[in-house]
Design a protein that fits this description.
single chain; mainly beta; 1 helix; 9 strands; 39% strand; elongated
């Protein structure tokens, strides 16, 4: 009987020490990434080089911008393999909110390359259907599958509100 009490006491001490050792001593601060100011989901339309006509009759598609594993000033520009199949790295200047890629940057969805130029994030300049003021994005892209044609991309930050989902380019 004495051995059983000793075993119960040891199990209790081990259990208590496990709970205490897992306590982090308060709420952890997860921090952010270098590009968190421009990260998020966007509604973006690809336009012909004239900057007016939707490319190939397209409409707004959801893009994402997010940090690379290096957590520096590079980020992924990603159309989620929906439209122009662009998923490539670009570099942002956070003080001017401008961005570009290296010439002929590899696209991850295809075996092609893309050159992104004239990229700009503009803070709080677009009003959505829900009357929410959001940021805008614009950039030019030249693809190796259509050399010489520089497509214009423009869009706005996604709010997540139902009335702002799936906007149409007019």
């Amino acid at each position: 009987m004495k051995n059983i009490n000793i075993i119960k006491t040891l199990i209790l001490l081990i259990a208590v020490s496990l709970f205490i050792s897992c306590d982090e001593g308060g709420d952890p601060v997860p921090g952010g990434t270098n590009v968190e100011a421009i990260a998020g989901d966007w509604w973006v339309v690809a336009l012909e080089p004239d900057g007016i006509t939707p490319a190939y009759g397209g409409d707004y598609v959801q893009f994402s911008t997010y940090n690379t594993a290096a957590n520096d000033n590079t980020f992924w520009l990603d159309d989620n393999n929906i439209w122009m199949q662009i998923k490539s790295k670009a570099t942002v200047n956070l003080s001017s909110l401008t961005f570009e890629s290296e010439p002929n940057t590899q696209e991850l969805y295809t075996d092609e390359t893309v050159t992104v130029t004239n990229g700009v994030f503009t803070k709080g300049t677009y009003t959505t259907e829900s009357n929410t003021v959001v940021d805008e994005i614009s950039f030019d892209a030249e693809f190796s599958w259509d050399p010489g044609a520089v497509y214009k991309f423009k869009g706005h930050k996604r709010t997540g509100f139902l009335e702002d989902e799936n906007p149409h380019y007019e």
